[in-house]
Design a protein that fits this description.
Length: about 270
Amino acid sequence: MSCELISWGSVEITGPRHEYRESLLLALIGKAAPPGSDILDAGCGGGSLAVALALCGYRVTGVEASDAFVASVRERAHAAGVADRVRIESGTVTALQAQTGSFDLVVSGEVLEHVPDDAAAVREYHRVLRPGGRCIVSVPAHPALWDFTDEWAGHVRRYRRRELAARFAEAGFEVERLRAWGFPTVLLYHRLIFLPWSRRASRRPVQVRRAEVAAPSPARRAAAAVLGTAFRFDGLFSALPFGWGWLLQARKKAGTHPETSPLSGRCD
């Protein structure tokens, strides 16, 4: 009897690095948009960030291609008591259904590296933002770091700094901030813990991982807490161009493209 093995997207891959990265995104969002703002979580996955944003008082629309994750987000939002502030849609980031100028902020965490036509996705992020609205993204950095986990995750690329900045500038954004994150502790965690784990996990039944996510052991929770604290040490090195990934914040300039006016409707 065959069983489904774990693949990227068959179950949410979370852990201390995921939680730390989302804390960095939340910190940027908190400075870029006040509570009550309309936020698009483009490629929201299992919805951990969308629900966290709703708990902070934001109105969140999530877009996700996986039907399983769409259902998961709805369940998570309901369980957290924020179903009235989280709306989830099935769709792709290269063809968003939202009207032009619908959002104050777009966040897209670990998404663009999966998208063959990432330029189309960035153009869509620009289109759905209101003038002066901001886009905040995280992506994996440095092609030299490519390994088994990129292949397992279905990544198309890892980004060089100048390539990521150019992608947003070409779409009409003004890049306000672009920095590395995850050096040195996250990189050590990846090499020593996550990479070996992922090789083992790729050969395990998906039901096992779902059980672990639903009820993590006390030892696993304790280890995650210790690692999460250790990762914060990396903030001392955020000015260096090294790390696991890039964090980018960009602003939609007012009046740069007439077709992005909030009165113009969808432009295909």
